[in-house]
Design brief:
Elements (H helix, E strand, L loop, with lengths): L5 E6 L2 E6 L10 H16 L5 E6 L4 E3 L4 H5 L3 H19 L5 E5 L2 E3 L1 H7 L3 E5 L3 E3 L13 H9 L1 H10 L3 E2 H6 L5 E3 L1 H16 L3 H15 L3 H16 L2 H11 L12
Parallel strand pairs: 2-3, 3-5, 4-6, 5-7, 6-8, 7-10
Antiparallel strand pairs: 1-2, 8-9
The structure holds octanoyl-coenzyme A.
The site of octanoyl-coenzyme A has 23 residues, from helix 2, helix 3 and strand 6.
Length: about 260
């Protein structure tokens, strides 16, 4: 599929997706979701990809939300379909077997913040701005924000952000747990790629097990989560990367993980 609204490229074992509608601050249309979904399929089939970075083209935005002009044309049922299409895709991104980092280089609003929250973690530039401003349009978040945001920041803070529709800066977003790290604009990309490459060099089965245990374990009770963890630990033990990691430690050398699933 040829892409118009995203750019999909690879740097070594890191897949990079850039949202590419800078004139509309990379706002999300149905076509953006279709192209992103196609890129997700391609990444899942490409065993050489071991980590992914999502970012926005241009200097102003990661993604400033769903495209408001597009929303305005939809019927209520169309809005429901668009919402479920976005939600399903964001669940897929959250459940990918490899890590996904959101590199937020400006506005991450509405659907843009919801997309970033479906990634494993968020790095942001000092000038980034975050918010769920849907209330100012007479509506509510529709790509999972009412559910994921409280899991990041707690119920009261999520309610305040969604009820006021106000924007917060990168440092405040870090203080309340949305963002892991904040960098000067000119350093953000390099630092994000450094982390992505470092993670991409780890064992793939272990990364998949980690993601499953943390995401799925978060929504079950502690004991069930720990059961998941012991099974995932056993699966890691069957992977070539476990033999390599343990063998390298015992032989006092650096491990070279091959990233094979079996
Ligand atoms: N949709 C469409 N176009 C947008 C969007 C958007 N979300 N955001 C910005 N743009 C466009 C502007 O219209 C403008 O276009 P043009 O130059 O043609 O007039 C261009 O981008 C630049 O924007 P501004 O001139 O407004 O730039 P400023 O720096 O002055 O302001 C802001 C930047 C503060 C980001 C401002 O553009 C803004 O408030 N944008 C809207 C943000 C917003 O409300 N986002 C939430 C959208 S709703 C949503 O995400 C719901 C998701 C779930 C949907 C579920 C399906 C039902």
């Amino acid at each position: 599929m040829a892409y118009e609204d995203i750019i999909f490229e690879k740097e070594g074992s890191v897949g990079i997706i850039r949202f590419n509608r800078p004139k509309a601050l990379n706002a999300i249309t149905e076509n953006v979701l279709d192209e992103l979904s196609d890129a997700v399929n391609a990444m899942e089939e490409d065993e050489s990809i071991r980590a992914v970075v999502l970012t926005g083209e241009g200097e102003k935005a990661f993604v400033a939300g769903a495209d408001i002009g597009y929303l305005a044309k939809l019927t209520p049922l169309g809005l429901r379909e668009f919402s479920s299409k976005g939600q399903d895709l964001f669940f897929r991104i959250e459940g990918l077997s490899f890590p996904v980092i959101a590199c937020v280089n400006g506005f991450a609003l509405g659907g843009g913040l919801e997309l970033a929250m479906s990634c494993d973690f968020i790095y942001a530039s000092e000038n980034a701005k975050f918010g769920q401003p849907e209330i100012n349009l007479g509506t509510i978040p529709g790509f999972g924000g009412t559910q994921r945001l409280p899991r990041f920041v707690g119920k009261a803070m999520a309610k305040e952000l969604c009820m006021t529709g106000g924007l917060i800066g990168a440092n405040e977003a870090k203080e309340i747990g949305i963002v892991n790290k904040v960098y000067p604009v000119e350093e953000l990309w390099e630092e994000t790629m450094k982390t992505a490459k470092s993670i991409a060099s780890k064992g793939r089965v272990a990364l998949k097990g980690l993601k499953d245990c943390i995401h799925r374990g978060y929504d079950v009770d502690l004991r069930d989560g720990c059961y998941m963890e012991r099974d995932a630990f056993a699966v890691c033990g069957s992977s070539p990367d476990f033999n390599e990691g343990v063998g390298a430690f015992l032989e006092k050398r650096k491990p070279e993980f091959k990233g094979r699933l079996s």
